[in-house]
Amino acid sequence: MVAREGADDERFQDAMLKDVSRTFALTIPELPRALRTVVGNGYLLCRIVDTIEDDPGLSSAQKRRFCTFFAQVVARRADPAEFARGLDAVLAPGVPEAERLLVRETARVIAISEGFTAGQRKALEACVAIMADGMAEFQERKDPAGLPTLADMDRYCYYVAGVVGEMLTRLFCEYSPAMRRHEERLMTLAVSFGQTLQMTNILKDIWEDHRRGACWLPRDVFARHGFALSDLENGPRHAGFAQGLGELIDVARSHARLALEYILLIPREEEGLRNFCLWALGMAILTLRKIDSRRDFASGQDVKITRRSVKATVAVSRFSAGHDRLLRLLFVFLAGMPRPLPRGA
Fold this sequence. Notes:
The protein is mostly helical.
């Protein structure tokens, strides 16, 4: 009976992941079987927080209330059914049906985690608590003219993605004694890994966010190049905007360099773990290349990588996952870094 419930839970999570995130639905099966269910569960928990943040119909006060409520649910201090009913009742009509279903199934998502170890549950709870509080804060600070500084953008990226990197690292280190020996270094690098992915998303989604009345770009970076984000509508026609965008692309590439170092600390024999990370990093690097080559883009679709590029990323990762030197050379080639990364950087 327990085995059947576990299989049903895995099928449920697989189906939900395919509906709410094609990327994670693609990468999670690469993980060792012992990690698939807990990582999938962690992603679904984070997706519920994202649903609250992304809902255009909720006020910042409502988003704060539901984020706090959900963190309490994950910590087993509040009723998941009550949370689900309350949030489902006020979600905007435009919220995708898959996300609505996920919210309605909150109790089941929480119940699945009952079978996790204490360390795994603690990692998930910490991630959701930090993410929920940080996202609520930045929804209260949301400004169509952008964030004040690059440091503010860094903080936003941490709350949205850096904490996910920390969660994954805790789960990976509990699974792998070899990784546990590098846990302190991995935790630091995990934040850069998350920042790489989130900065890429922010840059790709500039115009979609703008249409929703949000902007997560830093005003100080663009001001240095003579462009004000309050005039974002005219960005594609302004040289200063393109220059500011280039500066942020370079920042993202610098974080990607550290993300590669994170991957290289994963034991070579753990190719599943390496592929899980490499696919995400590879797709981010290819997206940054497209943004860099077309800084006057007008939509995320203009710089979205093709299915062919995704398949190529998967194939190259599978071939090179166990070869550190080859991974370094590939990174230099794809990310446009001027020289190979120094060992132990």
